[in-house]
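Um, can you check?
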Amino acid sequence: MTRDSVLQSLQSSAEVYVIISGCTHMPFVLCDEVTYDDQILLYHKVEEAKRAAKLLQEEKNPIQIAKLLKPQYLGFYSTLYTMGVNCVYVDKGTDAEIQIQLADIVTRREMEKAPQGAVRVENPELHLTAIYFMQKIGTGAKEEDSEELAELREEMMTHFREGRYIVAVQEGQGVPVLKQKNGDTYQPLFTDLAEFIKFKQKNEFKTAVVDFEAIPKILAPEALGVVVNPFGVNLQLQIKRESA
């Protein structure tokens, strides 16, 4: 297939298959060693997707395969921007493999052209680093033994301190908290609207936008910290509460 025909197929095929990380419940992301593109793996045939999944599983990565249907394409490709992904690796490991830049598949609206008053809250650098961090944890790596994990955590925390986030607010009840299996309680925090929507149910939550500096002041008394994107990377970060 030519590059143009692949581009057309990514927009018009009845279905494609994406490799999903069992650690993040999101597309598995890998960094190209030459171009440094942050890319996901997409396949036209389920058999090829299964072969790719098996290779990743042999490297101790918890992997699943998800089928995407044509009506899902626009939403799926759009969320890759919020993940910090910039490339789609199509049919990797086959004779037809090709890398396509995300911007060539779907173009985002520039904020200058958005409706007046619109605010885009996104943290792609943090989101991407958290994905790599949790994928590495999922292979069984331990922070105390892994220089790569230590570097990822340092980078992740730098991005976290620079961020602006969405918090959920329940009318009359304040901010919700989530209790973990071990009994610890964390307050959910979202890098972007797509992650908040995963959490929202029956319109019971409204949103507020906060900078990193405000998080310790709005932390629920019983919370040990925040859990970033609980239905995605599920990254738990301990934060000391401060008086508002």
User: Anything to note?
Assistant: The chain has two domains: 3-105, 124-238.
